[in-house]
């Protein structure tokens, strides 16, 4: 735990974990302030979890969530009032930056501006932007640090795009903006939840993955100003770009289901969509001797639409192999109307639904969970077209949370009416701003939101940016490719590969891998080959099987 001291009664840090509360208690902390909204990151414990752990040490908790880069004077005033309550206080957010910004603004009339900046700098936080705000000074755009390409997001899509760009032109000045210390191979979490991978196998330090020749700006983006070609970072710092790539990922909205935040990670409630919860899935599956196991899928779009049923299949397989399946009732509640969106793969999946005796419940949206009573509540339609709420008790439940674009994206001028970055689905260029591209989960192209899609998209974006720089009127087109390795049992996968309109786009000859049937070869690909391809190929700009073809612009 990397604690930074701002004054004798206030410390700040990056995301706090429940296991670290004891250390704060030993330091004499009597109150904790959370400045990070729930659902910002896949590895983020919920405030309710922190609050519950803190209560065991008689530490008060205050929830003052602040959206990155949007620290208001009102927020700062409230923060200042909390500091006046006396005793040692610890504040946290994703990196400590927002908490420090709140402190700086709350001290504007109490401390000299130079002292505020110096104190924050000693703790490792740059408050120069906040100082300009306090002093009422406007930034000089001509004096800003500028880059040929700025990439927002250091996930699979962002890093791959940077690497592909540099493989084409190593002279480009490129910056990746991302506040995270860790990078996750999220496709691996399904296998963590099945006891195949350990969590640690899916994680790397972000610093080790930033492509050589790329500058990493370890901060969060607050806002976009496409008219002036700038992005605003937390702390009010401005970065200027010639071309911009938005690869900001997706937000898991845990609060979108009533009661979920209060019970996730206990009471038999789990999700493979969070790094620290996937091991709990495996714990529940191993220990369940009988009862009812529920698996849920929210309305689309979501990241990796097959993941909710992957958890169901792998759990069913474990219970089948251990002669427990006859004691366990499996039920799959899908807010949609079909098992899988591409019909060609459904027959193979249905054989496993039948094998595991899973009851399919379509048009059932999870809306509430009562963890203490182990009861889930679903909204569904009646025969007369009305809606009703039905309840179902459970012994374990795997939840896929509803998902949206990140808050700072949805409030930006870059989005469509649904809140996703508005791009041409073929070129991935923004429909209104010609020097902006977007890819990955945050873009509104109608493809499956998978890592495989980002792997195909990154070279397309890189090739089109280079073509734009050089005035080349040829462009690369993205065909909507996405892949969903459906883990139907331990050792076999239905390898779904498809593009726009559900067109099948297999990568291998049918004699090697028939994607419409369960395959051991596809499991070998998922378990043994795809992780190194991800770490050593995709993130290094190696465009194996995905190198784009340039065509005359239509």
UniProtKB/TrEMBL annotation:
<protein>
    <submittedName>
        <fullName>Bifunctional protein tyrosine phosphatase family protein/NAD(P)/FAD-dependent oxidoreductase</fullName>
    </submittedName>
</protein>
<dbReference type="InterPro" id="IPR029021">
    <property type="entry name" value="Prot-tyrosine_phosphatase-like"/>
</dbReference>
<dbReference type="Pfam" id="PF07992">
    <property type="entry name" value="Pyr_redox_2"/>
</dbReference>
<dbReference type="InterPro" id="IPR015904">
    <property type="entry name" value="Sulphide_quinone_reductase"/>
</dbReference>
<feature type="domain" description="Beta-lactamase hydrolase-like protein phosphatase-like">
    <location>
        <begin position="3"/>
        <end position="108"/>
    </location>
</feature>
<dbReference type="InterPro" id="IPR023753">
    <property type="entry name" value="FAD/NAD-binding_dom"/>
</dbReference>
<dbReference type="InterPro" id="IPR036188">
    <property type="entry name" value="FAD/NAD-bd_sf"/>
</dbReference>
<dbReference type="Pfam" id="PF04273">
    <property type="entry name" value="BLH_phosphatase"/>
</dbReference>
<dbReference type="InterPro" id="IPR005939">
    <property type="entry name" value="BLH_phosphatase-like"/>
</dbReference>
<feature type="domain" description="FAD/NAD(P)-binding">
    <location>
        <begin position="147"/>
        <end position="267"/>
    </location>
</feature>
